[in-house]
Structures are given as structure tokens and as C-alpha cells.
DNA sequence: AATATAAGCAACCGCATGGTG
DNA sequence: TCACCATGCGGTTGCTTATAT
């Protein structure tokens, strides 16, 4: 078979000497004008590895200038990052790796690079490919993604989309949010047909953490507002269609008409690492429905819990801008009883953890956080909460403890019976 | 065995960001 | 302040292989 890569650019597989040879010859002539594309050959790999051995990573464009490689800097970087650098894991993802991916995606969305920092030896590209493959599979299996009223490539767009309503709501306008029932034909769970998939290719990630929370009065949920919050339309759809089996009665301890839909409460402890909550993996919505807020808007709208942690992270960044700064202990600005150990470098992992904590009702955090940090040995964030910390500084909360914290009945905690979405 | 479809994967592209002169 | 450059990220494409019909 003659393979063609990138349209008109012929190239062979790495073992195809004829194709690559012809291409190589061509590249020598056109070195100033046409850089080689397509699969890398072993010879090219060897050149790149040897160069990096001597000069180290970075300055990728210099590779092409200083070697016989006729690849652009971006291509060299990509090849090194994804295939040639040491300690890369190869092969399919293990179940131990898959679960964190699901959890991370539920918290971070399509932040592949960020996710990769939590999965040693794995690249963002691998994670992205894994996720996209899985997403396609689940869609093909017809699992519910969103309701019929918004599905389909040719449906007329409503005059006021749910997102617009959400946006209006977070700007303080009072909008009623009738809870859709399972029997509501327009909002009932729908199975997405494979034919609908092409439409979804434009969909982007939708994360619970971006959903604005409304107080019962319709205003924003502040950091110390009651934890019982009115769900927005988007949250309603999450509850009714991503967890279609769950009904209001599945959430004991919360009024049926007003609760914060936050499955993120379902922490558990396993193998001394922070287990992120089990969340649906298919958190996507069609592009004409979802309208993800900017990070700034998200912070503004969800307020608040995150503000506390951002406050701390801001302090950490300020403090750690001095590389020689010794490890310091700071006090929570809003939580005098809590303390945070600030290491000597600012870590994205901390920000990830902060995002995770964003999903915890503010009152649940109040006075609880004792220590927050990141364990580089285990590559896991750790969080000490007063009275519930484990010996190894991992998160010491199990689902029953959390249920108690948030005054739900642990014996009938709904998240333990949530259907798995993978 | 031939064909169709799905899955897995590698690589490219466009864009955003940050540093520097 | 601006332009330029290097780098990094996420989306997308298209090829190869595996599996189903």
C-alpha cells in the first residue's frame, strides 16, 4: 500500500525506505523551503536524540539549523515529547490509569496537558487520543448525552438558549427553573444516535465546575451562602440526562426542588491517594447549547469557594517568586484556623486541587482545611482536613464522612448508587 | 476471503502566551 | 508599545491495524 500523508505529501512508514528515501533526497534540495512532514524514521529519531543528549531540550528550531534533520522545531519537540524522551510509558492504559483520567477530565475538561502532569509517563496526546476514542465509543453505544429538545444537527435554535438563561441568571436576573421530570417528553433522557455524532464534533467539554450556582433567591452563591442552592437549567440537564436514573428522590437530605447538583462530593480514599470523584465522562453538549464561561466568569459566578483557594495560591505565587524562599507556613486568609504549607515552587497541581475543591459546598470547607499540598513522590495532591486526615497526609474523607459534613444521610448517600458511565 | 467499520495512534495545524529586543 | 520568536496546547486529520459482517 502506498501511504499518503497530509494530502499531497507522500511519505512512507518508518520502515518504508523507498518513500522516505525519496523524500529525504527531496528535502536536501529544498531544505530552505520545504520541511519534511509525516512519520519519523529511525534515522531521524537518532539524530534528534543525539542532538538533545548534547544540547538538552529546548531551542527546537536550532535542531534543524544545526543538524541534518529537515524538520521544523515544532515537529522535533513533538517527536521528543511524545515518543523519544525517557520514562515514557507505552501501550494501552491500565485500569489504574483510566480511572484518574475520567476523574481528571470531570474536573479539568479537555486540559490534556494538565491531566498528563498527573499521569507520569503519559503524554497529553495519549490521554487525548484515549479520551476521544472512548467518547466516540460511548456515543456510538447510544448512551444519553443530552435531551431531545436540543439534539440533532438541524434543530432550530431556541430563541433564548439555556445558556443565555444561565448567563442572564448569573447576572442577577430572576429566572424560574422548573425542575424537569423524567416524564417530561421534551427533557427526558435521550439516546444519541451515531448519526448525530458528526454534529458533536464541534462540541466542547462541559464541566460541572463551570456551572453557575444559584441561591434560592436567584442571586449568586457566595462563599458563605447556604449550601442548598437552586440548580440552573444546565445543572438540571446534568442531573436528568447524564445521570438519567437519578431522580430528586435519589438525593436524600436535599429538598427536591433545590439542591446543589454536585456529585463531586463522592470522594473516597483508596491506596492512600486522593481519589477524585466519580463523575460522568461524557460531559459534552452541542456547541449551540453549551457556552462555557471564561475562567474569569466561572470564578465570579461560582464564587467563592475557589476564591479562598485562589487567594492562597496568589499568596503562594507571590511568596514563591523568590526561589530562595524557604518553605513557609501561611494562614488561610478567611480561615484563621487552617494553614497551608507553601513549597518553593508554584505548582499547577495545586491549582488543579483548588479546582477540585471548588466543587465542595463552601460551608463544607469552612474551618476544615488544615493543610494542602502536593506530594511529588506519589504524584498526588494531598489535603488535610481537621479531624479526618490520614496518617500519610492523604485526603482522609470517605463518602460517609463527607455525607455527614454536608448533612446528608450517609446510609442512603445517592452518589454511591450512581450509575457508572464507563 | 473480501469488505466495512471501529479503534488506535502519530502528526500536523492554528492559536495563545510569554519572553525579548 | 510593538513586533518577532519560541514554546506549548488543544483540535483535527488521516493512516494503520484490528475486528465484525
Automatic annotation (TrEMBL):
Record field: compositional bias (Low complexity): 1-20
Pfam family, one: Myb_DNA-binding
Ranges of biased composition (kind: Polar residues): 179-195
Keywords, sorted A to Z: Activator, DNA-binding, Nucleus, Repeat, Transcription, Transcription regulation
Protein location: Nucleus
UniProt region (Disordered), positions on chain: 1-36, 145-195
This protein's record includes keyword Acyltransferase: no
Domain Myb-like: 32-84, 85-135
Principal localisation: nucleus
Keyword Cytoplasm tagged: no
InterPro entries reported for this sequence: Homeodomain-like_sf, Myb_dom, SANT/Myb
GO CC annotations, alphabetized: nucleus
GO terms assigned for molecular function: DNA binding
Residue ranges occupied by any HTH myb-type domain in the UniProt entry: 35-84, 85-139
GO biological-process terms attached to the record: anatomical structure morphogenesis; pollen sperm cell differentiation; positive regulation of DNA-templated transcription; regulation of growth
Protein name, UniProt field: Uncharacterized protein
Organism of origin: Trapa incisa
Amino acid at each position: 500500500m502506498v501511504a499518503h500523508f497530509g494530502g499531497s505529501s507522500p511519505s512512507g512508514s518508518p520502515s518504508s525506505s523507498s518513500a522516505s528515501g525519496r523524500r529525504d533526497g527531496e528535502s536536501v534540495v529544498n531544505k530552505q523551503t520545504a520541511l519534511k512532514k509525516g512519520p519519523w524514521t529511525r534515522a531521524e529519531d537518532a539524530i534528534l536524540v543525539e542532538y538533545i543528549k548534547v544540547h538538552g531540550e529546548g531551542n527546537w528550531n536550532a535542531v534543524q539549523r544545526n543538524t541534518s534533520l529537515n524538520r521544523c522545531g515544532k515537529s522535533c519537540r513533538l517527536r521528543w515529547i511524545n515518543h523519544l524522551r525517557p520514562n515514557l510509558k507505552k501501550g494501552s492504559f491500565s485500569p489504574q490509569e483510566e480511572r484518574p483520567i475520567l476523574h481528571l477530565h470531570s474536573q479539568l475538561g479537555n486540559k490534556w496537558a494538565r491531566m498528563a502532569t498527573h499521569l507520569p509517563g503519559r503524554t497529553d496526546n495519549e490521554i487525548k487520543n484515549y479520551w476521544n476514542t472512548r467518547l466516540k465509543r460511548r456515543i456510538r453505544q447510544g448512551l444519553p448525552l443530552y435531551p431531545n429538545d436540543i439534539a440533532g444537527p438541524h434543530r432550530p435554535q431556541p430563541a433564548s438558549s439555556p445558556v443565555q438563561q444561565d448567563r442572564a441568571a448569573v447576572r442577577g436576573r430572576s429566572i424560574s427553573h422548573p425542575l424537569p421530570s423524567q416524564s417530561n417528553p421534551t427533557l427526558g433522557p435521550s439516546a444519541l444516535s451515531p448519526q448525530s455524532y458528526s454534529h458533536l464534533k464541534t462540541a466542547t467539554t462541559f464541566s460541572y465546575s463551570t456551572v453557575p450556582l444559584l441561591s434560592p433567591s436567584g442571586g449568586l452563591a457566595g462563599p458563605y451562602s447556604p449550601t442548598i442552592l437552586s440548580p440552573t437549567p444546565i445543572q438540571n440537564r446534568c442531573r436528568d440526562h447524564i445521570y438519567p436514573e437519578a431522580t430528586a428522590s435519589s438525593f436524600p437530605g436535599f429538598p427536591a426542588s433545590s439542591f446543589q447538583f454536585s456529585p463531586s462530593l463522592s470522594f473516597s480514599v483508596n491506596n492512600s491517594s486522593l481519589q477524585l470523584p466519580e463523575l460522568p465522562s461524557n460531559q459534552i453538549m452541542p456547541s449551540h447549547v453549551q457556552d462555557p464561561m471564561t475562567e474569569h466568569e466561572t470564578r465570579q459566578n461560582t464564587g467563592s469557594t475557589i476564591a479562598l483557594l485562589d487567594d492562597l495560591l496568589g499568596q503562594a505565587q507571590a511568596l514563591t517568586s523568590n526561589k530562595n524562599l524557604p518553605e513557609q507556613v501561611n494562614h488561610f486568609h478567611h480561615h484563621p484556623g487552617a494553614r497551608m504549607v507553601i513549597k518553593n515552587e508554584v505548582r499547577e497541581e495545586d491549582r488543579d486541587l483548588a479546582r477540585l475543591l471548588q466543587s465542595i459546598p463552601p460551608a463544607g470547607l469552612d474551618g476544615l482545611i488544615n493543610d494542602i499540598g502536593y506530594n511529588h513522590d506519589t504524584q498526588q495532591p494531598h489535603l488535610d482536613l481537621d479531624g479526618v486526615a490520614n496518617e500519610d497526609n492523604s485526603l482522609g474523607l470517605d463518602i460517609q464522612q463527607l455525607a455527614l459534613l454536608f448533612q446528608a444521610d450517609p446510609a442512603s448517600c445517592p452518589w454511591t448508587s450512581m450509575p457508572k458511565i464507563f
